[in-house]
Amino acid sequence: MKKKLLALSLSLAMAFSLAACGGNGGTANSNTPAGDGSDDGPIQVGFAQVGHESDWRTASTKSAQDVFSEENGYELSFVDCDNDSAVQLDAVRNFIQQGMDYIIIDPIVDTGWDAVLTECEDAGIPVIIIDRTITDSDKYTAWVGSDFKVEGLACGEWLKAFAADKGIEEINALVIEGSTGASATIGRTDGFKEIADREGWTILDSQSGDFTEAGGQEVMESYCQSYKGQFNVVICQNDNEAAGAMTAMDAAGVSYGVDGDVILVSFDANKPYVQLVMDGKINANFECNPMAAPMVDEIIKQLENNETPEKEVYVTESWFAAEDNIKTITVNGEEQEMVHVTQEVLDARPY
Length: 351
Ligand code: GYE
What we know:
Blueprint: H1 3-20, E1 43-49, H2 55-67, E2 74-80, H3 85-97, E3 102-105, H4 114-122, E4 127-130, E5 142-145, H5 148-166, E6 172-177, H6 183-199, E7 202-208, H7 213-227, E8 233-236, H8 239-252, E9 263-268, H9 271-278, E10 284-287, H10 293-304, E11 312-314, E12 319-321, E13 328-331, E14 334-340, H11 343-348
Parallel strand pairs: 1-2, 1-3, 3-4, 4-5, 5-11, 6-7, 6-8, 8-9, 9-10, 12-14
Antiparallel strand pairs: 10-12, 13-14
Helix pairs in contact: 5-6, 7-8
Bound molecules: beta-D-fucofuranose.
């Protein structure tokens, strides 16, 4: 498939779909082909990554570097945006300048995207969004990622079932949120809050730990000062924050986990933290799958073959618990297993 032709046909397809949606459809510019237009060179992919804030992020970056390798016929331009939205927008604009064949974005925040995505569209460069979502524009070819609200709802439904089983009548929760404006934060916060409101739980406080271990520790230190003796649940929106929260609780003499006073919950389920579930330090961990890159590779192959990929692809995810008292939970009418972590389960974890 000639890249020039692909870029042109995508521009036309996008212009057509915009027109069909009542948009002006006049922005596609077939004079600006993606890539070098040659058939034999590698496929040039620009990836504007969020940063390097967490173990999850490291796994996501590694997955992209493994998949978009020279052996696989790619040339990857990777930009670590260090959690700075302005840097990320610049990175995308540079990819346009460089005439990338495809642009991959993991959006740091969920808004502010329409202008730059329009520029990508005008340049005829397909954009594939991974992981976090964009809420103010649909000018991208495909998105691959997780349903963060489902993750938050799952956490709430598990806690409800777990508390009922243990005879815990009151829930006083502290939430350590992820980075402000990230769709992962918004979904996990909203999902958990929906269940908390329904069940009449108290959320004592909810502050951002920026998805980092240092951030989680700092927030938990201040929570321990303000709320010591008042809370029995800590929800960390990622594993690194949970690590920081554990350090802070250890220092403050607050016990947590299977044998402790505080129920500790995390999201991401990177392997070292699934180990902490098995060890009983973290009570439950809701996976977020960082392996989007192989699916992006599939999408690019479809586009190269002039096929139309699905606009939205959800990765599959598991939910892990330290104890086996809750076997399944139901979210949005769908029942899913709570996986009791054993050595065998841990050994099978891919990341
Ligand atoms: O949970 C966190 C990372 O966007 C889902 O970002 C991702 C989140 C993940 O820093 O660890």
